[in-house]
């Protein structure tokens, strides 16, 4: 049985691996911030299904994000602080 409620049309979805959490358990992704540069962007998430997580706030259609490898960026950034 599949139950779908509250589906948002034209929602942005990213691979589950792209969504990370900070020290306060707030979700974020690494999104393109310039020429081959990526920065942390806080997002609000919705449902997760079939390896994809819905982003309800914080990204726009066409934004470049890091999926596989985002943990490496998080680790590298933690070493710099």
Please give the order of strands in the largest beta sheet.
Answer: 1-6-5
Strand content is: 35-45%
Order of helices and strands: EEEEEEH
Which outline best applies?
globular
Radius of gyration: 14 Å
The chain-level mean pLDDT equals 81
The SS-based structural class is mainly beta
The description of the largest β-sheet is:
3 strands, antiparallel
Number of strand segments: 6
Counting copies of identical and different chains, the oligomeric state is: single chain
Distance between the termini: 47 Å
Percent of residues in helices: 10-25%
* Low-confidence runs: none
| Tally of individual helices | 1
Summary, kept brief:
By secondary structure, this protein is mainly beta. The chain is 14% helix and 40% strand.
Walkthrough of the structure:
- The protein has 81 residues and is mainly β.
- It contains 1 helix and 6 strands.
- A hairpin with a 5-residue loop joins strand 2 and strand 3.
- The longest helix is centred in the last third of the chain and has 11 residues, at 70-80.
- The protein is globular, with a radius of gyration of 14 Å.
- The relative contact order is 0.26.
- The mean pLDDT is 81.
């Amino acid at each position: 049985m599949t139950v779908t409620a509250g589906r948002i049309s034209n929602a942005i979805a990213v691979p589950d691996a792209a969504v990370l959490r900070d020290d306060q358990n707030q979700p974020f992704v690494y999104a393109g911030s310039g020429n081959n540069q990526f920065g942390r962007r806080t997002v609000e998430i919705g449902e997760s299904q079939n390896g994809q997580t819905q982003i309800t706030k914080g990204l726009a259609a066409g934004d470049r994000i890091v999926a596989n490898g985002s943990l490496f960026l998080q680790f590298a950034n933690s070493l710099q602080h």
